[in-house]
Amino acid sequence: MKTFQQYISEIRIARHKMPQVSSENLEDMLGWLGAKGITVSRGSIDPKKLIPIQDVNFDSVKSIVTRKPEKALGKPLLISYDNHLLDGHHRWKASVDLGRQVKFIRIHLPVLKALEAIKKYPNTEFRTKGTVPGSQYDAGLNK
Length: 143
Hints:
Oligomer: single chain
Low-confidence stretches: 3-7, 130-143
Order of helices and strands: HHEHHEEHEH
Number of strands: 4
Shape: globular
Structural class: alpha+beta
Number of helices: 6
Helix content: 25-40%
Strand order of the largest sheet: 1-4-2-3
Number of domains: 1
Distance between the termini: 11 Å
């Protein structure tokens, strides 16, 4: 199994700076992006082909794997056209651990432009708590 450093992108963004889109707002955001001329597509992919840009909380991942594996396979992950994760890092890691394909919604922009587009969506949310380097939230994939 790959280590976290083998998966993670050179782009590292703290959790509190990552845009989050609720399930309730997802379809609206996709329509909003379309109105801006940004193409999106849907599909499924081996999660090992995706590149995370934020660290994960392994307690959250363990909870998904042991108690809610259907959550990992339900809501699609948001990804950029170059396969970077934009939203759904915990579900991504749970899917890697479960060895299952994941649904995705691809925003056809490179990672940083896709993040900027999501940040501009009026109902984007941000978590107030960031990760701390060297903590359990900044650890290897094998935890």
